[in-house]
Amino acid sequence: MTQSPLSAEGVEQSRLLATPVPGPRSQALAERQAASVPAGVATTMPVYAARAAGGIVEDVDGNRFIDLASGIAVTSVGAAHPRVVKAVQEQVAQFTHTSFMITPYEGYIAVAEALGRIAPISGETRTALFNSGAEAVENAVKVARSFTGKQAVAAFDHAYHGRTTLTMALTAKNMPYKQHFGPFAPEVYRVPGSYPFRDGLDGATAAKHAISALEKQIGADNLAAVIMEPIQGEGGFIVPAEGFLKAVVQWCKDNGVLFIADEVQSGYARTGQWFASEFEGIEPDLMTTAKGIAGGMPLSAVTGRAEIMDTVHPGGLGGTYGGNPVATAAALAVIEAIEEDGLLAEAQKIETIIREHFEQNPDPRIGEIRGRGAMMAVEFVDPATGEPDAKLTNAVAAAVRAAGVILLTCGTYGNVVRFLPPLTIGEALLKEGLSEVTKALRSA
Ligand SMILES: *Cc1c(COP(=O)(O)O)cnc(C)c1O
Hints:
Aspartate Aminotransferase, domain 2, four-stranded mixed β-sheet, seven-stranded mixed β-sheet, binds pyridoxal-5'-phosphate, 15 helices, Aspartate Aminotransferase, domain 1, alpha/beta, 2 domains
């Protein structure tokens, strides 16, 4: 990893607090936001973006923040990768939209081919494109029901799959995602997963519990699909114990149940492989992708085994914008950027830097450092009891943000800070951001 003062996109790669934060321009925008945008759409930081590239987001007051969030794991190649910028500019000048369902275009097909090539699914695949992660999950469930002729879907404790009616039902956590928004979609069941730091179970034992719940509470005859994030994202960057996923996927195979890997957050080079499923040695029947897929353009996908995907009747899958030509042009550029810039290796280096930082700066309140690649997290606990410490987590996050670093929290218990830097962040910026976390922890 090298550190250049200017990213290729012209945003200076250094942290700078030029004004008190938020500065006057951001404050003025916040007032306009309060008068025009509902309070339900909340923001993490009170600063308004003007430019972003590499590892920096620059705000309207000229403050420059170290980006440890990538807009929630989206801008993995950076927020203005030259390849993505060029591809978008060229496509937008040709045509912005025709709807693939009316007069199709090559970009959609090229993305489907590319996903078929990189997906951890052997044999022939098919890919359908949509706009958001939640929409991809909805459609994966539709395909699974259509193929199996069954209705029930099982999701796990700590799962996050989106905010639409069906995906809220699949999502585990109430606040802020589900509160007052019911009733939720029927035929969704929740079973225990694997959270080794908290349940202390090995993969085989945790899988036994999950499979028992699937059999006793739902029954394979009713179950269309089991859906799981190979690393649970919003739930706390939970890496299941070794062997858990393999056992669950095998049970699905043996019982005529489809396994859907929700790789919306863990996919697309984030973990140091194309998909987190690859670490587990599993092959999903269906896989959902979004977030990092198109360098910030709204795009999502369902990729699956051809014989499953092709059972849906013509016209059964689609949407006005799904696979928009500008978004598909960006997606092709993202794949090229990941391959040509060696970003899988960058993600692996980021993991090493983050692990080394916290190993060299130990603290009894750090319960666990976990994750893979550039999808890393630290779980904070009360050292006396091991209980989750959300208050400390919020205090650390607030101090780090005030110091000019964009940092997100997550976790069912709100006691996890997560690191999702762009894979193109410079080593020095990453280390500077991490040292602010340690500073904040020491003074908390
Ligand atoms: C973010 C996320 C979703 C939802 O994606 P949206 O684009 O916000 O609808 C679904 N699944 C996982 C694992 C996610 O992280």
